[in-house]
Known about the structure:
Elements: E1 2-11, H1 13-28, E2 35-41, E3 45-48, H2 54-58, E4 67-70, E5 78-80, E6 83-91, H3 100-115, E7 122-124, E8 144-146, E9 149-159, E10 162-170, H4 187-191, H5 197-212, E11 215-218, H6 223-237, H7 239-242
Parallel strand pairs: 1-2, 1-11, 3-4
Antiparallel strand pairs: 2-6, 3-5, 6-10, 7-8, 8-9, 9-10
Helix pairs in contact: 1-6, 3-5
Amino acid sequence: xxxxxxxxxxxxxxxxxxxxxxxxxxxxxxxxxxxxxxxxxxxxxxxxxxxxxxxxxxxxxxxxxxxxxxxxxxxxxxxxxxxxxxxxxxxxxxxxxxxxxxxxxxxxxxxxxxxxxxxxxxxxxxxxxxxxxxxxxxxxxxxxxxxxxxxxxxxxxxxxxxxxxxxxxxxxxxxxxxxxxxxxxxxxxxxxxxxxxxxxxxxxxxxxxxxxxxxxxxxxxxxxxxxxxxxxxxxxxxxxxxxxx
Length: 245
């Protein structure tokens, strides 16, 4: 099967979340093909899991001075800025997945196999707790780790036979260590040097291609997806959305 590869660059947290929802919605309605999307952030920001409580998070860290947005997907809060974000939008059957845990493990295995050339200790975690308010504070089952420290994690939204996976890979450590205190590690710490983002993306694509036996082609957002994303972006910019809980 043919999958689209999208590289949408550095954009605001609001637009990034809107694009993922637009791609998810369009695919569910029969438009286009499964997607692997890479993107980054125009400035540091925080995404919080769909079911997380803002008051509870404020007791852990201050949200003042940094943009935060509620994601469509679950999981814990993630500080973005020095990470590479990856979204996968596909049907359950595209990755032969019966449930959330299975699809999470399969996607993590695909990414881990692609980047394992950077360090043979990179693997998928089998133990750990199933949830943490702060995503990168400790490995959870299905996360990608190196030397038992969390390197990458993700969360999902599943609906009507389709799934949206939103993942984050630490490229380097951010300055706001309060959000990342705990057992985590970055790509630059593993390799002891800077890595070109494009090279990292190619390693990930290679792992996904082999894991799911797919063909890929570089693509761009369609006019319909762009229009839909700009419309949805208004929701992500509203306090009502991010303050649901």
